[in-house]
Amino acid sequence: MWAITRVGFNQKLLNLPKTLSRPLMATFNLIRVSSPAYSTGSPNQAPSKRIGTHNGSFHCDEALGCFMIRLTDKFFNSEIVRTRDPKVLEGLDAVLDVGGVYDPNHDRYDHHQKGFEEVFGHGFNTKLSSAGLVYKHFGKEIIAKELQLGEDHPDVHRLFLAIYKSFMEAGMDRINTIGVLLSPWFSFSYASFDTDKPPRYVNNTHLSSRVGRLNLDWTDPDQLPEKENEAFQQAMALAGSEFLDGVRFHAKSWLPARSIVMECIEERYDIDPSGEIMVLKRFCPWKLHLFELEEEMKVEPLIKYVFYEDERAKQWRVQAVAVSPDRFESRKPLPAQWRGLRDDELSKEAGIPGCVFVHMSGFIGGNQTYEGALAMARTALKI
User: Fold this and answer.
1) Nearest in space to 364 (alpha carbons), one of 350, 352, 347, 380
2) Would you say the C-alpha torsion 73, 78, 83, 86 has a positive or negative sign?
3) Which contiguous run of DSSP H or E holds residue 232?
4) Strands 305-310 and 277-280: what pairing?
5) CA distances from 364 to 109, 271, 377 (A)
6) How does 163-179 read in b/e, with b if 16+ C-beta sit within 10 Å?
7) Quick check: 181 pLDDT over 80?
């Protein structure tokens, strides 16, 4: 938070996560105000660069875009100037979400102008928001700093694509272009892009809604630019912290899980000559990775069963792979005659000792031992 006084702002600590690593930490120094613009630079040591965005009501894309670009070497901790004055914008080092120009060679990143069609590429076709434009041009640098790797490292590229898919496209670019009607309080989400149909549900909890609610309320008697700039500061911190949380999740959890699943796919013929059974040597989130890697590695035939140890129950699970990530139907469910049975009754029916259960839908079953789980998968393939 920032407290307003007659002579300016008194600095207080922003509630940013304590785990922010130094390379990706955009510090928030004492704010200077010169209405309608404001600065995050220190008055004692003026920053070398100035970044412009519009004043007035703000949205998540420019808040996140300003946060991200200040993480880069070129614009690290730069001053933020909020204005719509074309003469002021013309003299700034970078401009986001205002100005009607997309020109990365001159660091202009607006997406509102007629004829704008820029997309991320790499198979993604959603038109970019201002945050999406910043990510397209600076995302690899930001990720490389977090991983402490070079920008040309394969893991940096993998995370660059994965974070765009899971965070930037859905959370920024689609909200700014298609599929929802925005307000600071809610968005209507549609089953398709045919807006003649009524919305299926209302979502008021996503990041864009939460950032939007930081705008000054119309009932607030204090509508001064200084108060608005303080709110934008909070919006940058909120959007930026969630972005960095996503980067760190992918570096800490997503990428190691992907490596585990890839290794298990490569070793599947050591488990069974069919190539349709995979053992997960160490449990991790595996389903989405499996679908993506099967396509990437051109796996044929597709894997039907994945089995792994349930360390809490000290048993093994056999899980039928779904036909697609968004469907419950399995490629090859466990046999119908096993479903709903348990323990000795199941072991007798299957002819396999140590059976524990098979779900009524056939999507998962259990056995007390590795050998028993493997036998269940092998037998199910043949039925």
Assistant:
1) 380
2) negative
3) helix 225-249
4) parallel
5) 49, 19, 10
6) bbeebbbebbbbbbeeb
7) no
> Do the Cβ atoms of 371 and 318 come closer than 8 Å?
no
Residue 88, helix vs strand vs coil: helix
Torsion of CA 202, 206, 209, 212, to 10 degrees: 180
Q: Which two tokens stand for residue 337?
A: 């005659």
Strand 37-39 and strand 32-34: the pairing is: antiparallel
In the block, which residue shows the tokens 């205002």? 98
Q: How confident is the model at residue 45 (pLDDT cuts 50, 70, 90)?
A: low
Best CA proximity match to 171, nearest among 139, 129, 201, 138: 129
Query: pTM for this structure?
Result: 0.79
The pair of three-digit structure tokens given for residue 166, joined into one six-digit string: 């899971």
**Which residues, including other chains, have CB under 8 Å from residue 194's CB and lie 6 or more apart?**
none
pLDDT tens column, 79-138: 999 999 999 999 999 999 999 999 999 999 999 999 999 999 999 999 999 999 999 999
Neighbours of 80 (CB within 10 A): 27
